[in-house]
Automatic annotation (TrEMBL):
S-adenosyl-L-methionine binds at G71, F76, A122, E123, R135. Pfam families: GidB (PF02527). Belongs to the methyltransferase superfamily. RNA methyltransferase RsmG family. Its EC number is 2.1.1.-. Keywords: Cytoplasm, Methyltransferase, rRNA processing, S-adenosyl-L-methionine, Transferase. One of its GO terms (cellular component) is cytosol. This is Ribosomal RNA small subunit methyltransferase G.
Length: 209
């Protein structure tokens, strides 16, 4: 929790309280429905919360932005980003119903009004979004095929509408068919060694008529 405040010094008292509540909520729900490995639950703030917030170091979402979080699992990166951006709408989806139950209960426990979570496959989502976020649910070619037609036409940010993807390691092979993709090293923003190989990939997507 110390690192959250360190790297995001402009949090409101309410946001700090919400971030503090995350540990208790996840430990409680994880004991009932395992969404985070036991090894990782003790490093929740580094490996899950701060990692999710890496997207915010690349992109500051404007009020009214619509975000789709695909394969959210226990709510990452969507829940931490929803705390950070209370005026942004987040739609969190996963194919596993019990994970969505945890997401809904955590969102409720935090009093988040800007989160909707449903059991849903990405291919079946009918809405359009400014950005689609995810945390390494699959390789980029497959992910692209799921979401390529779900991008809103109107651009409101410096970075073009598209995918913001949290991934680690050497992505040369995975991104070879995506020349417009940009990799951002999270080690440029966060000091913990966990982030040495972690990246945010931005892939702009064109609006499909």
């Amino acid at each position: 929790m110390h690192d959250i405040v360190k790297y995001f010094p402009n949090l409101t008292d309410n946001q700090i309280e919400q971030f503090q509540k995350l540990e208790g909520l996840y430990k409680d729900w994880n004991a009932k429905i395992n969404v985070i490995s036991r090894k990782d639950i003790d490093e929740l703030y580094t490996k899950h919360v701060l990692h999710s917030l890496g997207i915010a170091k690349i992109m500051e979402f404007k009020p009214g932005t619509k975000i789709l979080d695909v394969g959210t699992g226990g709510g990452f990166p969507g829940i931490p980003l929803a705390i950070l951006y209370p005026e942004v709408d987040f739609y969190l989806i996963d194919v596993i119903a019990k994970k969505i139950r945890v997401v809904n209960e955590v969102a409720k426990g935090l009093g988040l009004q800007n989160v909707k979570a449903e059991q849903m496959r990405a291919e079946n989502v009918k809405e359009e979004f400014d950005f689609i976020v995810s945390r390494a649910v699959t390789n980029m070619p497959d992910f692209y095929s799921w979401v390529k037609d779900k991008i809103a036409k109107k651009q409101n940010h410096e970075l073009k509408n598209g995918i913001l993807y949290l991934k680690g390691g050497d992505l040369t092979e995975e991104l070879k068919d995506f020349p417009k993709a940009t990799e951002y090293n999270l080690s440029d923003f966060f000091q913990d060694e966990f982030f040495e190989t972690k990246k945010v990939v931005h892939l702009p997507l064109k609006y499909k008529v």
